[in-house]
Amino acid sequence: MHCGPIRMWLSCGSPFPCGCHRQCRCWMVVWRGGLVPDLLPSKEGKGLTRCFLLQIVDILLHYIKKTFDVKSKILDFHHPHQLLEGLDGFNLELSDLPESLEQLLVDCTDTLKYGVKTGHPRYFNQLSSGLDVIGLAGEWLTATANTNMFTYEIAPVFTVMETVLLKKMYGIIGWREIEADGIFSPGGSISNLYGILVARYKRYPEIKTKGMAALPCIVLFVSEHGHYSVKKAAAILGIGIDNVIEVKCDERGKMIPAELEKNILQAKRKGQTPFCVSATAGSTVYGAFDPLHDIANICEKHKLWMHVDAAWGGGLLLSRNYSYKLSGIERANSVTWNPHKLMGVPLQCSAILIREKGLLEACNQMQAGYLFQPDKFYNVDFDTGDKTIQCGRHVDVFKLWLMWKAKGTCGFEAEINRYMELAKYFYKVLKKKDNFKLVFDAEPEFTNVCFWYFPPRLNLIPEGFERDQELQKIAPKIKAQMIVEGTAMISYQPCGDKVNFFRMVFSNPATRQTDVDYLIDEIERIGKDL
Amino acid sequence: MHCGPIRMWLSCGSPFPCGCHRQCRCWMVVWRGGLVPDLLPSKEGKGLTRCFLLQIVDILLHYIKKTFDVKSKILDFHHPHQLLEGLDGFNLELSDLPESLEQLLVDCTDTLKYGVKTGHPRYFNQLSSGLDVIGLAGEWLTATANTNMFTYEIAPVFTVMETVLLKKMYGIIGWREIEADGIFSPGGSISNLYGILVARYKRYPEIKTKGMAALPCIVLFVSEHGHYSVKKAAAILGIGIDNVIEVKCDERGKMIPAELEKNILQAKRKGQTPFCVSATAGSTVYGAFDPLHDIANICEKHKLWMHVDAAWGGGLLLSRNYSYKLSGIERANSVTWNPHKLMGVPLQCSAILIREKGLLEACNQMQAGYLFQPDKFYNVDFDTGDKTIQCGRHVDVFKLWLMWKAKGTCGFEAEINRYMELAKYFYKVLKKKDNFKLVFDAEPEFTNVCFWYFPPRLNLIPEGFERDQELQKIAPKIKAQMIVEGTAMISYQPCGDKVNFFRMVFSNPATRQTDVDYLIDEIERIGKDL
Questions:
Q1: Which residues of A touch B376 (CB under 8 A)?
Q2: What was the ipTM of the complex prediction?
Q3: Cβ–Cβ of B145/A214 closer than 8 Å?
Q4: Is residue B42 part of a domain?
Q5: Is residue B140 part of a domain?
Q6: Are residue A330 and residue A430 in the same domain, yes or no?
Q7: DSSP state letter for A334
Q8: How far off is chain B from A445, nearest CA to CA, in Å?
Q9: Are residues B513 and B366 both part of a single domain?
């Protein structure tokens, strides 16, 4: 590999001991005592470090350009065994001896080459998609600062930024700063776990010392369309999945309040002790919003903790047009909100917000003497690390802060409104197409649009079990072909009595209407002969 | 702010619509519908994106250079209220309207300016320190790829890399690949939680569905010097802190096997059910290694799960000179190992390793239909996301993989051996100094060296309570002064009956012997008149 365009060399601006102008010589790193000797912190390493990192950046910039190029493939698919066996000099095995910097650059290129461009305009595969350039810059800076959120001492700016962001989020939910608390966590599942953990602690503070043995049989409620992480949390917390009661939903996937109340009363009759309801604001598959006011009324009546999993839907609070869909969230006791989903922040960025100051700390603190010394010379209220279930904690706030600076609240709002419009457009186009069938024949609630594609031959089979058996295979086949060709990525799943259907979702800032049209054509192209 | 050195502009190599040569004009971003209009994915955004990201990189490269410059300050300390109120145009508040790109660059510069240079040669504050340039490049790439570890589908290279790294780690521990399993998690505390979670599930698989109500009163054991995350995990898991039994240590902080056995028998007599021992390989403060073979013998005898928290000490396995200190780890059922500590990988990077295939998945899987479709066209064994307690999971493996390629196992070994030598050197120098007193008058076990500094006036006070009262205040005062001057950072804490002492620790690749000498002089300089 050559050292890249000459302008990159010039931009390094540093004379190498080995002479940069003689090209690749400086990359011929010699094995000396196990270190790559010429990068920093080596005394002589400044020039090579700069040059190496600029080469990396060149690879990344090239990748970014391709990511946003609608004509480039989203991925160059290979099977796991192919990657394991090694592809064209891309060997994943690790050895005792070092590789050259030159080889590392090739490895970086290959890592991206065989990966998935999650920022591609036609990547619709997950609730988190897109690549925000400002957020990306934030991540690069975060990586370079390489610090840890546990104390103000070593992360002064980031810990204070976290409080600023949390305050902003409380305000948007409709909470007063004085009553609210929160923390950023490694993802929505962990945030949901926090919600239930704190709910349990609030009701039974003795849980922390004595464990579940001191408690009655506690149960919690979540809709049948709620995220699986609620059950996962119950398993981890020692509550048990059997004690998560699934509440029935209406046909659009919203929890039915009357069913919730029925379930609560049933549980009480059985001698179980309800303590928490986890409502959903933006369900994963249907994008449904539970009726939060009705649920809040029931929670108040039965004195239950109300958690709202707004991991996906939380961002909608930023839209003056659509925030009404989360009306009632201000009455929740805790809220999960993932800026890495609808707000497009790079992975990962998730917050758990609690409407009671001090509870998070009381629940989790262990006062480790080696970290949280009380005799520090600054205000140790900013040593927030003892609120968490972690010790070390990655800095997930800076990218969000920088994006908020770059876009303003209005910028997020405009983008989110655009996704909602795209979802409506997609729905309208599909409605007119004979070979597509919408899971719900009504305007989308959120940016999720669920649908089946029917190849012509399936229209000849009468509705019923046999046709469903065939239909079940269609989405996986279409998706497999899309992946092999690298043209688009979209999710599918079965749900309840519904066989495999596609879930389109809009959260990718690169997506334009033409990409939506393309996807429809692509499904028809691949699917018509299946 | 001007657009930076002209060579940077040349390196952009892209003609701007607004004309790059006319300088700053292209930064005057106009508010149009809430978006920063000229960055990607805007059609016209390629040039500005490249230029903006190169400007960011220029800021980061400047920071990296300063980080490694021993003459630069580690930090420019300000109190939390000062940051909150805003400093010289650095305003953390978020508004409805966007800032210009120009302002964002200033904000990035300020964020670094008021932060802590954790890679500085004289930063000794945490077990994780230093800034590895290759690891950093890995993080930049990870951020750019911006994907999620839950499925092979969207993270093909990274999920396979994870299996390659885990395999390597099993081998180093001494496990056969066929029997072992593991996953990377968000930090050592979560990894320890995994160990205990899986231990509980192995003994009582009904926990997952029925919760703790179906179990007897289970108890686990950890040394009094074990990490606080073991207790935290017990609180979260619903076991309760009271059911974590602290085992006495010898004077160096190693668990006493006879005490462990005594505690186990006592618990059984009380009707409690021991199920797990968490041994420590490299304790946080003293750097102590529990006697793993003795503990393994006891675990085998009493049929207890043996977890080893080698978050800090795990890296020592890579040193042929010192790996004997972890002898017996191969007999553990689970191991926590944080490459972000001794191995110098950027934060965060932690693995939980389990010596039983399938257990992690059985314990945690929920088979969410929308993610883990069984009808995919590739080998879904690589969809490892259902093993975790998370859903989305940050890519923490690439930086480690890239560093391993760059250094080889031998490179890690050489670096770790150097830290051990530095610790010995530090110990020897302190031993000769009258005003320093070592907590242990023997060669360091690990790279931790604990010591007090006695200002001359304290030598006039006879040993005892009064002197201890004074000594307790010395380390915080010295540290506060170091922080204010930005000259060095080192941790202190009290421990048991010992008043505040410094904990020196070596894990920073930039540290040289001269920095060690400097630290000693600095403590004397600040402390002599206290």
A1: 476, 480
A2: 0.95
A3: no
A4: no
A5: no
A6: no
A7: E
A8: 19
A9: no
Minimal Cβ distance to A84: which of B160, B242, B363: B160
* Amino acid (1-letter code) at residue A27: W
Domain containing A350 equals 179-356
Residue whose pair of structure tokens reads 């060095």 in the numeric block = B488
Q: Are residues A352 and A444 in the same domain?
A: no
Residue B222 in any domain: the answer is yes
Joined tokens for residue A457: 């031959």
In a domain, A374, yes or no: no
Nearest to A238 among B46, B211, B368 (CB): B211
Same domain, A467 and A334: no
* B210 and B326 co-located in one domain: yes
pLDDT one digit per residue (tens) for chain B, 530 residues:
233 332 333 344 433 333 333 333 333 333 333 445 589 999 889 999 999 999 999 999 999 999 999 999 999 999 999 999 999 889 999 999 999 999 999 999 999 999 999 999 999 999 999 999 999 999 999 999 999 999 999 999 999 999 999 999 999 999 999 999 999 999 999 999 999 999 999 999 999 999 999 999 999 999 999 999 999 999 999 999 999 999 999 999 999 999 999 999 999 999 999 999 999 999 999 999 999 999 999 999 999 999 999 999 999 999 999 999 999 999 999 999 999 999 999 999 999 999 999 999 999 999 999 999 999 999 999 999 999 999 999 999 999 999 999 999 999 999 999 999 999 999 999 999 999 999 999 999 999 999 999 999 998 999 999 999 999 999 999 999 999 999 999 999 999 999 999 999 999 999 999 999 999 999 999 999 99
Task: Please provide the DSSP assignment of B314-380 as one string.
Answer: GGGGG-TTTGGGGTTGGG-SEEEE-TTSTT-PPS--EEEEESSTTHHHHHH----TTT--TT-SS-G
Partners of A334 in beta bridges: A307, A354
Domain count across chain A:
3
Three-state DSSP class for B235?
A: helix
CB A282 within 8 A of CB A310: yes
Residues A78 and A220 reside in one and the same domain: no
Residue where one domain finishes, among candidates B394, B416, B439: B394
Q: CA of A140, closest CA in chain B: separation in Å?
A: 5
Instruction: Extract the tokens encoding A373.
Output: 């010394």
